[in-house]
Design goal:
Layout lengths: L23 H5 L6 E8 L3 E9 L3 E6 L5 E7 L16 E4 L25 E2 L10 E7 L3 E7 L1 E2 L9 E10 L2 E10 L10 E2 L1 E7 L5 E4 L12 E2 L11 E4 L4 E5 L4 E6 L5 E7 L12 E6 L2 E2 L6 E12 H11 L7 E3 L8 E3 L2 E2 L8 E4 L6 E3 L5 E2 L5 E9 L4 E8 L10 E5 L7 E6 L9 E8 L9 E10 L1
Antiparallel strand pairs: 1-2, 2-3, 3-4, 5-13, 6-9, 7-8, 8-10, 10-11, 11-22, 12-21, 13-20, 14-15, 14-17, 16-19, 17-18, 18-22, 19-20, 23-34, 24-27, 25-26, 26-34, 27-33, 28-33, 29-32, 29-34, 30-31, 30-33
Length: about 475
């Protein structure tokens, strides 16, 4: 998971704070013979109970004694498992983050080296080697379904106040995964957004070369980049903007596993340990996680989807190109969710979202940050914000980040006047008035006022671009 000061030698060494198969073999399998006790000891004296899908192209295995997480993925007819299971924090599994930091419950304190993680239920188990509880599972030879109560990674044998569900199907060289969190925390605090893992993915030692596309001409077969640790970069992992929304861990022959989430730009990953060798129970591991920021409400019902693609780099990229929509300016309508937006020095009225974001502006410098994506400034000229507000100030401002920017700046911003009469208005911000509105854009920020105050708010129905 994405935790930047994790050490390689500890359990779940190098976790982060953290989208991919129809042949005849699948039709011949049955739910009965697809589930089998391996009778084999796994890491931490774990006895695996596997449920498999195989379509003649790839073979997928989930461990029913580890929350139904993916612990096996290979080409059909081989035993070359790509997935690392050195401890309960590896595998390919669900993982969510929220506050407080540190997180303690029922008199139990987090393991000292994991105090900085906070609230973090994960699908497989905890840092003490305990396994999560499986509630339901099914396998009809076409789809595997699992439901579990996850465990908090930093705490000893403490169930999460939530349920995780996964649905897996195969399509040629890809696993299609749908994942769902149903949360019911007793703590109703709205904690700040955290980078998530959608999902956390760990490979074995041979798959150590982390490859992706980071350029400004996505879907043009541009040169791929290898992500390697930069000198002075903290922690074991690197973060980057994946402008084609995928990344892969491959071996010396460029064969391995890719992960793709449409329109997701935030990724983190790397390799820990000695590269080139090692199996599922060995420490060396590659890691990838699509890692957008999200607010995880106490009562949220949240879903995401991803594909895993098995093959060489050319085949992985070809799969993404055949299934992805090309980058275009985003349009955010807050009908049922936040659309990936989150807050700095602000909070909204919580889940569920009903047709608008109702944001409280009661702190200094309240900010709304959009998700990381990719589009060209030249494709649009105007940003339209449909909102109502009640504020003392009226000095609203839009910021944008170009590809490669490390932070927002006043240079890349444009001000406009907010009407504070409490009625809905369509604000048309002519971005082309700024000479800085150019090149590839990856993120927006909206500051409704410079300084908030008690009982001040803004309600936003949509944020979208016009040509």
């Amino acid at each position: 998971m994405i935790e930047n000061n994790a050490s390689v030698g500890t359990a779940r060494s190098s976790r982060m704070l953290a989208c991919f198969l129809g042949a005849t073999i699948a039709a011949l399998l049955t739910a009965t013979n697809a589930i089998a006790d391996t009778g084999q000891e796994r890491a931490g004296k774990h006895l695996a109970k596997m449920s498999y899908l195989d379509n003649g192209v790839i073979r997928l295995g989930v461990d029913l004694n580890w929350g139904g997480a993916i612990t096996y993925l290979s080409r059909s007819g081989t035993e070359q498992n790509l997935v690392n299971s050195y401890d309960c924090g590896r595998q390919i599994q669900m993982s969510y983050y929220s506050g407080p930091v540190p997180f303690a419950i029922a008199g139990k304190q987090p393991k000292p080296q994991w105090r900085f993680i906070g609230w973090n239920p994960i699908q497989v188990g905890d840092a003490f080697g305990n396994a999560s509880k499986l509630l339901e599972q099914s396998n009809d030879a076409k789809q595997v379904y699992v439901k579990c109560i996850p465990l908090h990674w930093p705490l000893e044998n403490v169930p999460g106040e939530c349920a995780y569900e996964c649905w897996f199907t195969l399509d040629g060289p890809a696993v299609h995964a749908r994942c769902r969190l149903v949360n019911h925390r007793p703590d109703h605090t709205q904690y700040p957004a955290r980078n998530q893992e959608y999902p956390a993915l760990y490979t074995n030692g041979p798959w150590y070369r982390l490859m992706t596309y980071t350029g400004d001409q996505p879907f043009s077969d541009g040169k791929l980049s290898r992500i390697e640790k930069r000198i002075g970069e903290p922690g074991p992992w690197s973060g980057w903007t994946a402008t084609e929304s995928w990344a892969a861990l491959v071996d010396d022959n460029s064969f391995g596993m890719g992960i793709w989430i449409p329109q997701c730009g935030n990724f983190i990953g790397g390799f820990a340990g000695k590269p080139g060798k090692g199996g599922p129970n060995d420490n060396p591991t590659g890691y990838i996680a699509p890692s957008p920021k999200e607010i995880i409400d106490w009562n949220i019902d949240h879903e995401y989807r991803y594909d895993l693609i098995v093959g060489d780099l050319q085949a992985i990229r070809k799969y993404v190109y055949e299934h992805a929509c090309r980058p275009s300016p985003p349009s955010y309508t807050f009908e049922k969710d936040r659309q990936g937006w989150c807050y700095v020095n602000a909070a909204d009225t919580g889940w569920p979202i009903r047709g608008e974001l109702n944001v409280l502006l009661e702190q200094d410098d309240p900010q709304l940050h959009g998700p990381v994506g990719f589009w060209q400034a030249a494709d649009v000229s105007t940003l339209v914000i449909r909102a109502a507000s009640h504020t003392r100030g009226s000095d609203a401002r839009i910021f944008w980040s170009n590809l490669g920017d490390k932070r927002f700046s006043e240079i890349n911003s444009l001000g406009f006047t907010l009407n504070s009469d409490g009625e809905y208005h369509a604000y048309r911000v002519k971005l082309t008035k700024s000479p800085a509105w150019k090149g590839p854009i990856v993120q927006l920020r909206f500051d409704p006022v410079g300084t908030g105050g008690k009982n001040e708010w803004i309600r936003i129905k949509s944020i979208a671009f016009e040509k």
